[in-house]
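tool_call: predict_structure(chain=1)
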Amino acid sequence: MVRQTEIELRRELVRFGKWLYRLGHMPGTSGNLSVRLDEHRLLVTPTGSSKYLLKPDDMVMVDLEGRRLSGSKNVTSEVGMHLAIYRNRLDAQAVIHSHPPVATAFACAGLALEEMVCQEGIMALGPVPLAGYATTGTPEVAASLEPLLPGHQAILMANHGAVTYGPTLLDAFLKMETLEHLAHVHLLARQLGADQALKQEQVEQLFRAKERYLLNAR
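tool_result:
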């Protein structure tokens, strides 16, 4: 994969921030995005800023301890969440934290999205666990996420929102979009009174199909 330049990554942070805002995942000044610039530095969205109004120059450069290296604004107070993911998932090159309304409603109800009720849940995302409650902007957030990071692509955060991560910002964005879609499907199935989970044999068949899909997509 060709490494993107700094200006390209700054523009991508702006672009995906706007998309998430328009989807209603980052209302007001909520939510944050980050991307690896190289082995030692990250680009992160600033604190207290609407993602719809951000410009490339607004992004903050930090080291892997969260210390600001450049930028006129302060980094998001939730940078610790991003750092925990980069430390524990070396394959992660981008992180998105947002508040998709239906998925966040599940998190506020204390409900994970680990039960597989539709094929897309397995093919696109896999089970989504629920991290325990942690006060935003504190080290508790990272601590609540760390045990769940291996083996998962997305995590719900109790009474808070959700976080996704992946090899690119596009990948992390698609996972967040899919998470909200799956949460909506779960909600509607429950309202219909017939949310029927896939059987174990069906789940195993879908995992094999996913492996074939990933091979063909390379």
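agent: The chain has one domain: 6-217. Proceeding to next step.
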